[in-house]
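From the shared-data thread, chain only:
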Amino acid sequence: MLLTMLHERGDRSRSHGLPVSVLKAQASALGVPLMVRPATWDDYEAVFIDALRELGRAGISVGVFGDIDLEEHREWVMKVCDATAVKPHLPLWGQPRKVSLAELIRNGFEATIVSVKKEVLDRRFLGRRIDQETVDDLEAAGVDASGEAGEYHTVVTNGPLFARPVEIRKGSVHERDGYLFLDVGFSGASICLDSADVRSG
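Structure, as tokens:
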């Protein structure tokens, strides 16, 4: 099960600004059911815990989180999981940031930058795929290329776990909460997931 938190309007992911159609396309390509939950920043934690409890009741016992080395992030993960039956697993924890990023590229995952923190990066990075050239340019801009502190966010559209690429179209740029977002949409064939495969709560 993929759990994604949405903006309170319920139309886009909270931190990445991805439309639900793209999330559904990712889940379909991965062959994994999708759970979405709308939330404000004020009730984010409570909604997240409620979703974990539902997953626990459905028999899911482990949650995978992608944090690398920010202790406050790990503490939050431990806190929300401690309130539920779901145990946290952080497979990247403690691994050097450059190693994690190099593995992503070497293993053939395709990730495109869809949002950047305005105070540290400009819009020229939006729409760029994460490859060695982009890594070099991020470092030249003075930020950590892994984006661990939220310098940028990506959408992953292909890789070893995908049955097929997720085709996206790139649109306009807009600003919200100190970030610049590239509006992206799903441009492939229609994705129809059974109601059991998309749980919005």
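Residues 73 and 97 are 15 Å apart (CA to CA).
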